[in-house]
Amino acid sequence: MKTIEDNRFRRGMSRAAPFLMAGMLLVSCGQEADTGKATGEDSAISIMAPLHFPHAPDLSIIGEIERLTETKLDIEWVPDGIYTDKMNTSLMTNSLKKATFVKYTDYTFVKNAVRSGAFWEIGPYLDRFPNLRRLNPDILEQSSLDGKIYGLYTERLSSRQGVILRQDWLERLGRKAPSTIDELYETMQAFTYDDPDGNGLDDTIGVADRNDLIFGVFKTIGSYFGTPNGWAVQGKALVPEFETPEYMATMNFMRKLYEEKLINQDFAVTSKEVQRNLFIRGQAGMYIGSMLDAQRLADAAVRANPEARFAIVNRIEGPYGFRIWSIPNFNGLYLFSKKAIKSEEELLEALRFFDRSMEGDVANLMKYGFEGRHYEVEGNKVRLPKESQEMRNNEVSVIYTLMVADLSNPNIMKVGEQDELTALAERLSEDNEKFVVKDPTVGLKSDTYDEKGGELYKIVSDATYNYMLGHLDEEGFKREVERWKNAGGRDIIREYTLDYFGGGDAG
Amino acid sequence: MRHAETTAGAMEHSLPMKAGRRGELWRRLRRNKWLYVMILPGLLYFLIFKYAPMYGLVISFQDFKPYKGIADSPWVGFKHFERLFTEPDFLQILGNTLILFGMNLLFFFPVPIILALLLNEVRVSVFKRTVQTLIYIPHFMSWVIIASISYVMLTMDGGIVNELIAYFGFQKVNFLLSPEWFRPMYILQVIWREAGWGTIIYMAAIASVDVEQYEAARMDGAARFRQIWHITLPAIRGVIVVLLILKIGDVLELGFEHVYLLLNSMNRRVAEIIDTYVYTAGLRQQQFSYSAAIGFFKSFIGLLLVMLANRLARKMGEDGVY
Q1: How far apart are the CA of A361 and the nearest CA of chain B, in angstroms?
Q2: What is the pTM of this model?
Q3: Domain of residue A190, residue span
Q4: Would you call B187 an interface residue with chain A, using a CB distance cutoff of 8 Å?
Q5: Distance between CA atoms of A411 and B122, rounded to whole angstroms?
Q6: Residue A336 shares a structural domain with residue A298
Q7: Which residue from B minimizes the CA distance to A107?
């Protein structure tokens, strides 16, 4: 009995085994073939870029860009919310695209990798290209590392921060737009308690914030109070913003908003989407952040409530007059991975694409879309019709991230007339330039900051939130700042001070 | 399992004691060649995916830079371990990890067992199957979804839970931002997601209990509860112990995603665990070696605990896992 079974089993096995083996081989071959394909398309230029909109851009525009530049593109759009994580993952697994967008806020994390030679130094090649040659030397300098140029910058006005608020609510309450911190506070209070939407219910709040101390409400209000932008130069030393009394004043203001319920009570964990929704659905009357968001917020809000109208304010006067924090003139860089770009020729090929994308035909396409479909030309100016606004938002705006140095690019047509709110936001952003506060540490070097600045900043940002929510008092906050100093903050201060004053005398 | 027994049996049958050891081994290999071929994929799997990657642990003793590779990165000895043990937050993070693990063991581990026992007592099979299927579903949801659902339900700004609390005239509770609520929230979410899935093995174990035993017990006048206590539970005791040991082996695997999603500035004091610390302090700042050192330390604790638990199990007369 046993032998029969054994034999049968063996015979079965000897027949099956080759198939099993073959199966395994097939599986492994399949995997190889896949990876081979992924890395094999060397002619295409692969790009990783953040996606600020719900959808990836219209394929027809990408196709047209490919046709005009005679380049095959392989763009990975990563939702903005997870972009930093995703970029970090690619960086550490060494699987970067040929060109990778690095936000200026993430630049410090990437610096280590840049220094260790993960990216091409492109400075010496720029002169070979007609458009890249004309890049703004000042911004290149701001974005350089140890005096070398590694990236192509995406240009931005230095400050778009401002207050977007409900004009119809203001009018219903008989108020005018705020122009001082006190008025800002009073407006928030009225928006919360005076039934600004007139529905008889206590269902509104003054302002919507999110879990972001920089691009949320906090830093902008901080500027109104006169908080330095990151660091202050006081006498012979650099001082972090959170050691200044103005920072404390800002926290007290936020704490008051929280305690009086003028702000969404969960702001410390609110995502950008939820924040925007609070404003769009008419639960919150103010949105403090990038003024250029106004048009998109308004479009969405009007769909929910046709009566909604909006105002934008950029000048809020504080104890030091008008002030607003700024970012460097670039908001990010395209870096070129040495791992993905093997040879100088390939690098030149990638640079050629970006150079070509600055020519009039491609640049205007990227900025405005197709003529006739997304915009009209009147004289030598662009007209952006209201009817195609949504189409532009959905199909074209996404691509803006890919545009290198567009603000100073003479090949791009100027806009004649545009949306009210966008035009206003741009005018006010330019107005901001008159009183921007710069971060003195841009371009300064601190090894401690590069190594653990982010981890250390966590101590301060946690303490800031805890203070605003009333879990910490002033003593407690100062203790946390001490903790920051002891854990390495003191070294950062020393290194920045040394670098700022050129060594020696600041020791 | 069964193949291994067959092999062992076959070997014992054929032990001619004359040729040299090597020849004998060779013959044995040849005789059972197809069985060895069958083992091969499993063996390769462990070698390639489990053992080979361990080589990477050497970077915890180096200052590893990805672009230099393992070969060219400088050796620094125990530098990263020293940094870990002298980190001011180290004890807190370790404590948080162990507390969460303890709560996991205490509150989550028994739930699937109880659930399986309850299901086993259900006599209407349609109802039983429906319930089973329904409680499996949460297992297939990602933590992102679960965290988002919790957020929507618990938020102070119109979340249903707080609206209910307010409706009944109580003070709203800021679940998301208070450190006291983090652990209950974590455990409840784990139970909601995994309890149903966890019943599968217990259900299988219960199904294998000899029905005659129940009949005998009923003859002796044992009620339902006594049957569970004296027959079902002892019968699945072995399974419980094995799963417990395995669980303990995962002591520090509390689910990075899950905790990271719940973590915020306000609850970091209780919510920062080793995994999230590795991410924020190590990986985000590209401190690969430091991250590897922490991971190494974590695995080491896990190993110790498994050995301890296994010992205990053996002392208590169970088989253990090895």
Answers
A1: 39
A2: 0.73
A3: 160-325+413-440
A4: no
A5: 76
A6: no
A7: B285
